[in-house]
User: Fold this.
Amino acid sequence: MSATIEKDGISIGRADEDDLARWNDLVERSPEANVFHYREALSVQADHADADLHPLVGYKGQEPVGLFPVFETRKGGMTMAFSPAPGLWVSYLGPALLNQEKLKRRKAERRNKRFVGGCLDWIDRELGPKYVQIRPDAAYRDVRPFEWNDFDVDVRHTYEVDLTPGEEEVLMSFSSDARNNIRTDGDYRVYEGGHDEIEAVVSQVRARHDEQDESYGVTPAFVSDLYDRLPDGAVRPYACEIDGEFAGGMVALESGDTVYRWQGGAKHDRDLPVNDLVDWAIMTDAMDRGVERYDLVGANEERLCGYKAKFGPELRSYYSVENGTRVTSALSSVYKKLR
Assistant:
């Protein structure tokens, strides 16, 4: 590592070639990492956000203690730092801790504090950003090191469906209208596809946002690059056809024991409950693979919560942390919309 910072026995710096060679192995070992932490996903984010990637890694001696990918952007002569990259509707990234399982609480908290503090020191020294926004995975629970470094912490929410009870019990936990929708008969087909389905799903969502005069930063090219470069099964494009025509769909992501409802679910004018059918197909396929949770990705917008809540999910919190000067405070309102 070059340009390292020492923080009470922990060394933090940009990943070197050896670190990058085993980066994905470390991602798979961290309970706070997700599909967007993979080296390939970071590269795709940097390309499509026009950002410089700084993959930070921390060591205590020879033992890796955490990963923290950061994206640097420059707008109007100001440097800003993000994790995840801005504008791409990536839900979570931020720090992913390693080798914490056997530590008692005091040591685990101390290591988290030192690792995060060291990463923030590195960002401040090497990048000098006027604005920083970090949104860790929902599995990363202790954000106090950010508070202690003068970051503002905003609590956010998502829904998770527990898939472990099995198909029948999961279905019975749904609302009656969701169950009835899933049992709908009709000339439809829900299936997992590839590039064509990515194009159709993302284009449909973009058209819906255009109708509402809202920005939408996801492109078919971005999702297709993720599909091509990530391991097989990490990006799962689902589509629903009615009478042989595309009616709707969802691009789901899968990492470890969780499948994520990422892009799709646009409102449509079909008589059949397309979105319910797609969500149920994602869940049942995931159960067949032994996946334990379905993250519905977001429970913050009131108008969307009614749909998601009918699947009997658990409400979970995650955090968004930010730090900036008065000059850049106006930027926060823009980037909050991308969460």
User: Anything to note?
Assistant: The two ends are 32 Å apart (CA to CA). The chain has two domains: 5-155+321-336, 164-291.
